[in-house]
Specification:
Helices cover 17% and strands 32% of the residues. The chain contains five helices and 19 strands. Helix 1 packs across helix 5. The structure holds FE2/S2 (inorganic) cluster and fe (ii) ion.
Length: 364
Amino acid sequence: MSAAGDSGSADDPVATTGTGEDYALRGLWYYAVPSRALRSRALVARTILGEDLVFGRDTAGAPFALIDCCPHRGMPLRFGHFRDGAVECCYHGWRFAPDGRLIEVPSLVSGQTFEFDRVRVAGYPCREADGNIWIFMGAGRGPHRPEGEAPRIPDIGANFHRLFETQLFPCPLDHAVMGLMDPAHGPFVHGSWWWRPSTSAHEKAKHFAPSELGFTMTRHAPSSNSRLYKLLGGKPETEIVFRLPGVRIEHIRAGRHQVVSLTGVTPVGPKETLVNQAIYWTMGWLAPAKPILAHVMSTFLGQDRDVVTRQQIGLAHNPPLRLIDDADTPAKWYLKLKREFARARAEGRAFVNPVPDVTLHWKS
Ligand code: FES
Ligand SMILES: [Fe+2]
């Protein structure tokens, strides 16, 4: 049945993944925070890939991210203020431009010299799009030059509504990402009345093609056993794009309407991962149902979180994993993509996408 010729056999256990030093890739755009979490003049702390960062907005409103540690005596900058275009440390008032340059030391008196150029807070490039703030986590000490573009949702016109949800998954990045692309857990983990009855599983065949830093489940009619899709009316068609480090964008078209779901998975550290979700839709009649939709979104993501939380009890023993064809083939591709990205960077060569053009079969 399997068409994924290079994906290995079910009898080849693969080593437990996601627990080593290399649990997360550098040199990629990660989801940082929803735009609404960063009000103007506010400083917001987040830990990403084990680094304590402070996010803010410059006077033009553009987001920035700096290492959350004052180079004077180590005070986290999150406790300071954004005032007159600069981040001011709460301890002795040193002031830093949004690009990290030191611009003022209040205790200096006239005649005292100080080499301002020698002090700088390191930072990472940020971009804001579609109500999301992305951060380019470069490698090494920086300055970090962004490569490629931060992920964008497809153009769905000017009239849409949106909702955001973030949950902390107590698991390594790889398991959060593999859960995102795993078709076989649906009936068991999300088998509620509003999604699909758990008894309705049937055979599926889906076409996949390689795409930028990942793969695409090409446009197709989604499973007829999902009640959420039925709600949309028209003849829904969906396309799902995945790209490193852990970004999934599903685009549904149904008649003249569109729905987009974006998920951005970002490690806090080796054992904790933030799963950020944004949903966009064009149906005006659904706007009053926002509180219900927010509840559904949070319940759905919570089901994924609860199942990986339980999984950690088993993963603590570092068991080998048996990833099978074809239901686990996308998970195998993810691990391959990650390895190839790391290798290509280490060898200073171009990334070669290892995903084949293929149709996968499973029952869910
Ligand atoms: S610790 Fe930041 S100004 Fe002194
Ligand atoms: Fe799920």
